[in-house]
Amino acid sequence: MTELTSNLSSSWRDFYELCKPRVVMLMILTSLVGMLLAVPGMVPLDVLILGNLGIALVAGSGAVVNHLIDRKIDVLMKRTHNRPLPQGRVGPKQVIVFAIAIGVAGMAILLFWVNPLCAWLTLGSFVGYAFIYTGYLKHATPQNIVIGGLFGAMPPLLGWSAVTGSIDAGALILVLIIFAWTPPHFWALAIHRKDEYAKSGVPMLPVTHGEYVTKVHIIIYTIMLVVVSLFPYISGMSGLLYLGSAIGLGAGFLVYSGRLMFKPKPTSAMDTFRYSIFYLALLFLALVVDHYLF
Questions:
Q1: Would 174 disulfide with which of 52, 72, 156, 188, CB 3.0-4.6 Å?
Q2: H helices within 165-267, ranges in order?
Q3: pLDDT in tens, 56-72
């Protein structure tokens, strides 16, 4: 009985890991911010809960497909070789059924209890990430993360459209911020994992063009991000509290990018990667605080 319970527990954890919960949580944070900024008051509770649940399930399904497609290269990389598929803890057929089940459940929730626009935008994001990016772009070009980053930048628009049933300029500004954030965020990790990407055959920028070129790109995109992060204030979406936060957080990102470029240490790439996550979470939190308090 104890062994059976252990196996069931292990299976649950494996399927949970397939959904990339930490990535999905960050996506839902940005989706939630999109919802909150879409209206002057509070978001209706049913849309708040069901909208984010549906988006999370479809995003989780995309993550599962990502695991499935990448299983052969995951086994070659230290960061990913312990994932459930490379280790054989779950099989491809199980994974396919699981992806379909949670994806269909998420789409049903969005279609029937939220609104069709949000549902179809979420489906488009799923197809873009799971198939266009993972299945093609990731292996086709060193600019994979730039082009594919658009699909990962969609959650604020999904949350916004869940509330309004429309695509508005404010939502597109939020998408643009994440779109500009994605390359320096991911390239920092790619520098740290350059040898693993080279071994797996994935043409990440540090592999194809070297670390120096990648670091230059990181600085360029960080500058673009700082500029784009001012758009909510310039457009009137947010006030001085957000402006101060955007400038301060952006300055911090530039410091980390500059250190990576000009005074690198063995930990500089991962320090920049970790700061980028901290940056995005606090930037979007500042948007919400500014929206409701000022």
A1: 156
A2: 169-192, 194-200, 205-228, 231-234, 240-262
A3: 999 999 999 999 988 88
